[in-house]
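Sanity check record (used in CI):
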Amino acid sequence: MKLKTLMAVTASAAALMTSAAMADTTLNALFMSQAAYSEDNIKSMTASFEAANPGTKVDLEFVPYEALHDKIIAASGAGDDGYDVVLFDVIWPAEFAERGFLTDVSDRVAADLTSKIFDGAWTTVEYDGKRYGMPWILDTKYLYYNTEILANAGIETPPETWAEVLEQAKVIKDKGLVEYPLVWSWSQSEAMICDFTTLTAAHGGSFFDDGKPAFETGGAKAALDYMKTSLGDGLTNPSSLEYFEEDVRRVFSAGDAAFAMNWTYMNSLVNDPNESKVAGKVGVMSAPGVDGVSEASAVNGSMGLGIPSNSPHADQAWAFINHLTNQSTQEEFANLSLPIWKASYSQSAVTDGQEDLVAAADKSIAVMYPRPLVASYTEVSSILQKHLHGSLLDQTTSEEALANAAKRVARIR
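Expected output for Extracellular solute-binding protein:
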């Protein structure tokens, strides 16, 4: 009897240990290391989640934006060793959903959340009537300007149209205040496509019409012409053709540009004396419009958090996503990325110290223009990047670049 009792106790203890081991879960989460929330922000959010969920640990991996898409795809074949939570761009849900990379979480999203979150944020995670995650980063590019340079140029108010941007830039250049008043992220990358989209929207253009390329003429051509003119007139820093967003921030922070297009995160950093020489001399506004066409312009640069289809920890992953995206968490870290929640924009935690940014966001969020929401977007973007960049380098005219891009895109569409 004693031996049987000992065996029973041993078996019971082993079962308890196995159960405890199973209860301890490690989530693998993939994020980007630039723009929006900082790595320190995400680590702080994660620490508070782990404290509230002692059975769950989160291993964080940060990669540059340019590596994010391919990392998610590569991990889709890793079985249980892949990621449990991934950050994805608004341009990828169609591809990821059709290829089965992301879990449909429509049934997990509470019905009452729909009206509480901006429509532009929801588009980040939606495809074909289903939701593949929760929106997390609600973002667009804003026009930043150096108030001191404008004042020294005798300019009393910032530009209201894209034409006025060039006019004011010319005044600033002619007065010798800065060699190149404009700086952009026009490397052959998605960053350039975001600026091209903003300008296309401002000029009333579109990417597709009835499924066929529509960027050979109209607003898209006007957008590329605008970009080329700003370079040809010596108003845009020619190094913009090699720049990403952090390069733009660096140049503007050094006082070497009067105007810059960049995401929300730049507002806090260019006003930080430890990061910027122009702190306290920065204005921010929604990207302007075009006379008779638009009053403002914006690209939808939002991002969402989803659960890869091969994750073995969907419940815990969803709990982590809910923590990162809930209203209180987002309001606590609103200095680098504004919340997805409509009600947050009346909270002092969000508005205090960044009233101009919130005012600009109020205008921009309403007009955010999407890049093509198609499963073949990555290929479409690559084609456009190549031909737009070549034209900006004066290798082709606007007409030739867009016509060649349209022919290539038509083949894959």
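The longest strand covers residues 25-32. If this sentence no longer matches the regenerated tokens, the check is flagged for review.
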